[in-house]
Amino acid sequence: MARATPVENLPNVNYYTVDEAIDEIKELRDMGIKHFVIRPRPDKTLANDPQGVMKFEARVIEKIAKACPDVTKIIDGYFGMARSNGYYGVVDGNGMVKQEESLRELTAHAVTQGGAGADIVVSLGRLDNAVSSMRAGLDAAQLHNVAILAYSINFGSSLAHAMLDGTDMAANSYAQTIASKIGVGNIDEALRQTAIEIAQGADYIGVKPATIFMDAITRVKQEFRVPVATYIVSKEYCMVKAATERGWVNERDTVMEYMLSMKRAGADKIFNYWVRDVLRWLKEAE
User: Fold this and answer.
1) Which of 106, 64, 72 is nearest to 89 (CA)?
2) Number of H helices, E strands in the chain
């Protein structure tokens, strides 16, 4: 990618070149932000080339880690960018996920990310035993200080897919993504998954989408007393943007209520697309 380009269906959100991303990170760091979710986006020529994607992400992470050693680098995604068929993992000819092969690939990827300078790697909660496999791989590589954020509560919501629009996997992703996540009404399964992945070595538990599942944030915090991260996903963001454009809501008030409510619910980290706006609104309120 030669320059910053807009993300389709995500107003005011861009894909950046690595150098531009470093400039953005440094500017926000100087404004007080210390934790960044980094989602490298490979060229389409690497579609369905997992090894190529790993090498690409390692180069991106290494460059950012060298330029920005004083911020936390959380690396999100992998199979979503390495596969265009919509499946989270390696699949056989019948469309069934090959568990052991998928775990090996995901673990290799986590080790590559950690070795390149990632501080936190991510499990999306869609492969059994992903956390234990990743933790074992990281420890074997002497990457004991690389933490794991496990999206143990990753609901099969219709709100999470705008970020994929325009990518090779977009046409195939929706049904497969919904099928491989937890049903939106099944809090019992979500909490069982949380308990399992804490036991397997997860350092943070992730909940997404954020705005409509704050009860899950509270349950995790109250029942497990572990650090909780939540992600205001792409379509949650888009709904507020669309309503703001029509004059139906006040964006600042709505977003700040989101942030306060999630913090009150128990979130320790809130991943979102409004960071610059929130910093500005907080300054204006001083």
Assistant:
1) 106
2) 11, 9
> For 73-106, how does the pLDDT look when each residue is reduced to its tens digit (9 = 90+)?
999 865 555 566 555 677 777 777 788 888 998 8
Q: What is the CA radius of gyration of the chain?
A: 18
Dihedral sign for Cα 146, 197, 275, 78, please: positive
pTM score, whole prediction: 0.91
Counting Cα atoms < 13 Å in the Cβ hemisphere of 4 gives 11
The percent of the chain in helix, strand and coil, each rounded to the nearest 5, is 50, 15, 35
Q: Which of these, 89, 91, 90, 54, lies nearest to 75 by C-alpha position?
A: 54
Contact (Cβ atoms closer than 8 angstroms) between residue 41 and residue 81: yes
pLDDT in tens, 136-164: 999 999 999 999 999 999 887 878 665 55
